[in-house]
Amino acid sequence: MKKTISINIGGIIFHIEEDGYEKLKGYLASIQKYFSSFADSKEILSDIEGRIAERFLNKQKIENKQVISLSDVDELIAAMGTVADFEAIEQAEDILADPLETASAQTATPRPEAYAATPNAPKTEPARPGAPRKLYRDLRRKLLGGVAAGLAHYFAIDAIWVRLAFLFAVIGLPAGSGMLDMNAEEVFGPISGFTVLVYIAMWVAFPGSTTLEEDAHIKKFYRDPDRKVVGGVAAGVASYFGVDLGVVRFLWVLSILLFGTGFLIYIVLWVIAPNANTLTEKMEMQGGAYYPLQY
Questions:
Q1: Does the CA dihedral 15-243-176-158 come out positive or negative?
Q2: Which residue has the higher pLDDT, 119 or 73?
Q3: Which of 129, 254, 266, 276 could make a disulfide contact with 222, Cβ separation 3.0–4.6 Å?
Protein backbone atom coordinates (compact mmCIF):
# COMPACT_ATOMS: atom_id res chain seq x y z
CA MET A 1 0.00 0.00 0.00
CA LYS A 2 1.40 3.37 -1.01
CA LYS A 3 2.07 6.04 1.58
CA THR A 4 -0.30 9.02 1.36
CA ILE A 5 0.35 12.63 2.31
CA SER A 6 -2.21 15.28 3.25
CA ILE A 7 -1.67 18.68 1.64
CA ASN A 8 -3.58 21.95 1.55
CA ILE A 9 -4.23 23.33 -1.93
CA GLY A 10 -6.31 26.46 -2.24
CA GLY A 11 -7.64 25.99 1.29
CA ILE A 12 -8.80 22.41 0.60
CA ILE A 13 -7.20 19.30 2.10
CA PHE A 14 -6.30 16.54 -0.37
CA HIS A 15 -4.80 13.12 0.26
CA ILE A 16 -2.20 12.28 -2.34
CA GLU A 17 0.10 9.30 -2.87
CA GLU A 18 3.75 9.99 -2.11
CA ASP A 19 5.01 9.63 -5.69
CA GLY A 20 2.23 11.90 -6.92
CA TYR A 21 3.09 14.42 -4.21
CA GLU A 22 6.73 14.53 -5.31
CA LYS A 23 5.66 15.09 -8.92
CA LEU A 24 3.20 17.83 -7.93
CA LYS A 25 5.77 19.50 -5.67
CA GLY A 26 8.29 19.70 -8.50
CA TYR A 27 5.64 21.01 -10.89
CA LEU A 28 4.53 23.77 -8.52
CA ALA A 29 8.13 24.72 -7.74
CA SER A 30 8.87 25.15 -11.46
CA ILE A 31 5.74 27.26 -11.93
CA GLN A 32 6.59 29.45 -8.96
CA LYS A 33 10.10 30.04 -10.33
CA TYR A 34 8.73 30.87 -13.80
CA PHE A 35 6.16 33.41 -12.58
CA SER A 36 8.30 34.90 -9.77
CA SER A 37 9.39 37.82 -11.98
CA PHE A 38 5.83 38.72 -13.02
CA ALA A 39 4.33 41.83 -11.42
CA ASP A 40 1.18 39.95 -10.34
CA SER A 41 2.91 36.66 -9.54
CA LYS A 42 1.01 36.07 -6.30
CA GLU A 43 -2.36 36.45 -8.01
CA ILE A 44 -1.27 34.14 -10.85
CA LEU A 45 -0.03 31.45 -8.47
CA SER A 46 -3.17 31.75 -6.36
CA ASP A 47 -5.32 31.25 -9.49
CA ILE A 48 -3.25 28.22 -10.50
CA GLU A 49 -3.70 26.70 -7.05
CA GLY A 50 -7.45 27.30 -7.31
CA ARG A 51 -7.58 25.56 -10.70
CA ILE A 52 -5.59 22.61 -9.36
CA ALA A 53 -7.93 22.28 -6.38
CA GLU A 54 -10.98 22.50 -8.67
CA ARG A 55 -9.64 19.77 -10.97
CA PHE A 56 -8.79 17.47 -8.10
CA LEU A 57 -12.24 17.97 -6.57
CA ASN A 58 -13.95 17.17 -9.87
CA LYS A 59 -11.73 14.12 -10.25
CA GLN A 60 -12.71 12.85 -6.82
CA LYS A 61 -16.42 13.42 -7.42
CA ILE A 62 -16.52 11.84 -10.88
CA GLU A 63 -14.47 8.77 -9.97
CA ASN A 64 -15.65 8.59 -6.34
CA LYS A 65 -12.09 8.40 -5.03
CA GLN A 66 -10.46 9.79 -1.90
CA VAL A 67 -6.75 9.68 -2.80
CA ILE A 68 -5.03 11.50 -5.66
CA SER A 69 -2.63 9.22 -7.56
CA LEU A 70 0.45 9.83 -9.70
CA SER A 71 -1.61 9.30 -12.85
CA ASP A 72 -4.04 12.00 -11.68
CA VAL A 73 -1.12 14.41 -11.26
CA ASP A 74 0.21 13.52 -14.72
CA GLU A 75 -3.25 14.16 -16.18
CA LEU A 76 -3.42 17.51 -14.38
CA ILE A 77 -0.01 18.61 -15.69
CA ALA A 78 -0.91 17.55 -19.23
CA ALA A 79 -4.12 19.58 -19.06
CA MET A 80 -2.67 22.73 -17.46
CA GLY A 81 0.68 22.73 -19.25
CA THR A 82 4.28 22.86 -18.10
CA VAL A 83 6.75 25.72 -17.93
CA ALA A 84 8.08 24.60 -21.33
CA ASP A 85 4.56 25.01 -22.73
CA PHE A 86 4.29 28.52 -21.25
CA GLU A 87 7.64 29.49 -22.77
CA ALA A 88 6.63 28.11 -26.18
CA ILE A 89 3.40 30.13 -26.11
CA GLU A 90 5.31 33.26 -25.12
CA GLN A 91 7.78 32.76 -27.98
CA ALA A 92 4.94 32.20 -30.44
CA GLU A 93 3.28 35.43 -29.32
CA ASP A 94 6.57 37.29 -29.80
CA ILE A 95 6.92 35.89 -33.33
CA LEU A 96 3.36 36.88 -34.24
CA ALA A 97 3.84 40.34 -32.75
CA ASP A 98 6.97 41.09 -34.74
CA PRO A 99 7.63 38.45 -37.41
CA LEU A 100 10.10 40.48 -39.44
CA GLU A 101 12.29 41.35 -36.48
CA THR A 102 12.25 37.79 -35.18
CA ALA A 103 13.02 36.29 -38.59
CA SER A 104 15.94 38.62 -39.17
CA ALA A 105 17.30 37.93 -35.70
CA GLN A 106 17.16 34.18 -36.32
CA THR A 107 18.72 34.19 -39.80
CA ALA A 108 21.37 36.89 -39.60
CA THR A 109 24.03 37.97 -37.16
CA PRO A 110 24.21 41.76 -36.85
CA ARG A 111 27.58 43.36 -37.54
CA PRO A 112 28.97 46.19 -35.40
CA GLU A 113 29.71 48.21 -38.57
CA ALA A 114 26.02 48.23 -39.44
CA TYR A 115 25.19 50.01 -36.20
CA ALA A 116 28.02 52.49 -36.72
CA ALA A 117 26.66 53.44 -40.15
CA THR A 118 23.15 54.00 -38.89
CA PRO A 119 22.36 57.48 -37.56
CA ASN A 120 19.79 56.16 -35.08
CA ALA A 121 21.84 53.20 -33.91
CA PRO A 122 20.92 51.93 -30.44
CA LYS A 123 23.28 53.01 -27.70
CA THR A 124 24.37 50.30 -25.31
CA GLU A 125 26.21 50.81 -22.07
CA PRO A 126 28.84 48.31 -20.95
CA ALA A 127 27.91 46.22 -17.96
CA ARG A 128 29.29 47.52 -14.71
CA PRO A 129 29.70 44.58 -12.36
CA GLY A 130 31.02 46.82 -9.60
CA ALA A 131 28.15 49.30 -9.75
CA PRO A 132 26.50 49.89 -6.36
CA ARG A 133 23.02 48.53 -5.75
CA LYS A 134 20.26 51.09 -5.54
CA LEU A 135 17.80 51.33 -2.70
CA TYR A 136 14.15 51.81 -3.66
CA ARG A 137 10.94 52.04 -1.71
CA ASP A 138 8.87 48.95 -2.52
CA LEU A 139 5.45 50.27 -3.53
CA ARG A 140 3.98 46.84 -4.28
CA ARG A 141 4.43 45.46 -0.77
CA LYS A 142 4.16 48.70 1.18
CA LEU A 143 2.08 49.26 4.30
CA LEU A 144 2.85 52.95 4.68
CA GLY A 145 5.48 54.42 2.36
CA GLY A 146 7.34 51.32 1.22
CA VAL A 147 10.50 52.18 3.18
CA ALA A 148 10.55 49.03 5.31
CA ALA A 149 9.70 46.82 2.33
CA GLY A 150 12.43 48.51 0.28
CA LEU A 151 15.04 47.96 3.00
CA ALA A 152 13.95 44.33 3.27
CA HIS A 153 14.36 43.87 -0.48
CA TYR A 154 17.79 45.50 -0.40
CA PHE A 155 19.07 43.27 2.41
CA ALA A 156 17.14 40.17 1.19
CA ILE A 157 15.15 39.62 4.38
CA ASP A 158 11.47 39.45 5.24
CA ALA A 159 9.89 42.90 5.48
CA ILE A 160 8.15 42.03 8.73
CA TRP A 161 11.43 42.14 10.66
CA VAL A 162 12.27 45.61 9.37
CA ARG A 163 8.78 46.79 10.30
CA LEU A 164 9.16 45.30 13.77
CA ALA A 165 12.49 47.09 14.21
CA PHE A 166 10.90 50.44 13.32
CA LEU A 167 7.92 49.79 15.61
CA PHE A 168 10.20 48.72 18.45
CA ALA A 169 12.27 51.90 18.14
CA VAL A 170 9.23 54.19 17.88
CA ILE A 171 6.79 52.52 20.29
CA GLY A 172 8.45 49.59 22.03
CA LEU A 173 11.35 51.39 23.71
CA PRO A 174 9.27 54.19 25.31
CA ALA A 175 6.46 51.79 26.25
CA GLY A 176 8.85 49.21 27.68
CA SER A 177 10.64 51.86 29.71
CA GLY A 178 7.38 52.97 31.27
CA MET A 179 6.14 49.43 31.97
CA LEU A 180 9.42 48.43 33.67
CA ASP A 181 9.80 51.74 35.59
CA MET A 182 13.22 52.35 34.08
CA ASN A 183 12.74 56.15 34.02
CA ALA A 184 14.65 56.32 30.75
CA GLU A 185 12.22 58.52 28.85
CA GLU A 186 14.96 61.10 28.34
CA VAL A 187 16.96 58.50 26.39
CA PHE A 188 14.27 56.54 24.58
CA GLY A 189 12.12 59.55 23.72
CA PRO A 190 14.73 61.13 21.41
CA ILE A 191 15.47 57.71 19.86
CA SER A 192 11.79 57.32 19.02
CA GLY A 193 11.59 60.77 17.46
CA PHE A 194 14.85 60.29 15.56
CA THR A 195 13.56 57.00 14.09
CA VAL A 196 10.44 58.75 12.83
CA LEU A 197 12.57 61.45 11.21
CA VAL A 198 14.80 58.82 9.59
CA TYR A 199 11.75 57.05 8.15
CA ILE A 200 10.36 60.30 6.74
CA ALA A 201 13.75 61.25 5.30
CA MET A 202 14.07 57.88 3.56
CA TRP A 203 10.51 58.21 2.28
CA VAL A 204 11.46 61.53 0.67
CA ALA A 205 14.98 60.64 -0.48
CA PHE A 206 14.54 57.22 -2.06
CA PRO A 207 12.46 56.71 -5.22
CA GLY A 208 9.59 54.27 -5.25
CA SER A 209 9.35 51.23 -7.50
CA THR A 210 6.57 48.81 -8.37
CA THR A 211 8.81 46.38 -10.27
CA LEU A 212 11.15 45.06 -7.58
CA GLU A 213 11.45 41.31 -7.97
CA GLU A 214 10.79 39.31 -4.84
CA ASP A 215 13.26 36.58 -3.93
CA ALA A 216 11.21 33.39 -3.81
CA HIS A 217 13.75 31.68 -1.54
CA ILE A 218 13.51 34.16 1.33
CA LYS A 219 11.81 32.54 4.28
CA LYS A 220 8.82 34.67 5.22
CA PHE A 221 6.78 34.97 8.37
CA TYR A 222 3.06 34.30 8.09
CA ARG A 223 0.35 33.58 10.60
CA ASP A 224 -0.53 29.89 10.35
CA PRO A 225 -4.33 29.49 10.00
CA ASP A 226 -4.19 25.69 10.03
CA ARG A 227 -2.89 25.41 13.59
CA LYS A 228 -4.16 28.62 15.12
CA VAL A 229 -5.89 28.93 18.48
CA VAL A 230 -6.37 32.70 18.47
CA GLY A 231 -4.70 34.47 15.56
CA GLY A 232 -2.15 31.94 14.33
CA VAL A 233 0.84 34.02 15.48
CA ALA A 234 2.38 31.37 17.75
CA ALA A 235 1.86 28.71 15.08
CA GLY A 236 3.51 31.01 12.55
CA VAL A 237 6.53 31.51 14.82
CA ALA A 238 6.80 27.74 15.30
CA SER A 239 6.67 27.14 11.54
CA TYR A 240 9.16 29.91 10.78
CA PHE A 241 11.80 28.79 13.27
CA GLY A 242 11.04 25.06 13.01
CA VAL A 243 10.37 24.57 16.72
CA ASP A 244 7.64 22.78 18.64
CA LEU A 245 4.37 24.70 18.73
CA GLY A 246 3.69 23.74 22.35
CA VAL A 247 7.00 25.26 23.48
CA VAL A 248 6.26 28.53 21.65
CA ARG A 249 2.80 28.81 23.21
CA PHE A 250 4.20 28.06 26.68
CA LEU A 251 6.88 30.75 26.39
CA TRP A 252 4.36 33.22 25.03
CA VAL A 253 1.89 32.69 27.87
CA LEU A 254 4.79 32.94 30.33
CA SER A 255 5.89 36.28 28.86
CA ILE A 256 2.34 37.61 29.11
CA LEU A 257 1.93 36.55 32.74
CA LEU A 258 5.36 37.66 33.97
CA PHE A 259 6.19 40.71 31.89
CA GLY A 260 3.07 41.68 29.94
CA THR A 261 5.12 42.41 26.83
CA GLY A 262 4.11 39.15 25.15
CA PHE A 263 0.56 40.43 24.73
CA LEU A 264 1.73 43.59 22.96
CA ILE A 265 4.07 41.63 20.67
CA TYR A 266 1.28 39.18 19.83
CA ILE A 267 -1.11 41.98 18.89
CA VAL A 268 1.51 43.72 16.74
CA LEU A 269 2.35 40.51 14.87
CA TRP A 270 -1.34 39.75 14.45
CA VAL A 271 -1.81 43.15 12.79
CA ILE A 272 1.24 43.31 10.51
CA ALA A 273 1.76 39.62 9.61
CA PRO A 274 -0.36 38.23 6.75
CA ASN A 275 -2.18 34.91 6.86
CA ALA A 276 -0.67 31.99 4.93
CA ASN A 277 -3.77 31.13 2.90
CA THR A 278 -2.29 29.73 -0.30
CA LEU A 279 0.07 26.85 -0.93
CA THR A 280 2.64 29.30 -2.27
CA GLU A 281 2.60 31.34 0.95
CA LYS A 282 2.99 28.16 2.98
CA MET A 283 5.98 27.30 0.79
CA GLU A 284 7.48 30.71 1.58
CA MET A 285 7.29 29.96 5.32
CA GLN A 286 9.81 27.20 4.58
CA GLY A 287 12.03 29.40 2.40
CA GLY A 288 10.41 28.34 -0.88
CA ALA A 289 12.01 24.91 -0.80
CA TYR A 290 9.33 22.64 0.58
CA TYR A 291 5.58 22.41 0.81
CA PRO A 292 4.03 22.26 4.25
CA LEU A 293 2.71 18.82 5.11
CA GLN A 294 -0.28 18.29 7.35
CA TYR A 295 -0.43 14.74 8.65
A1: negative
A2: 73
A3: 276
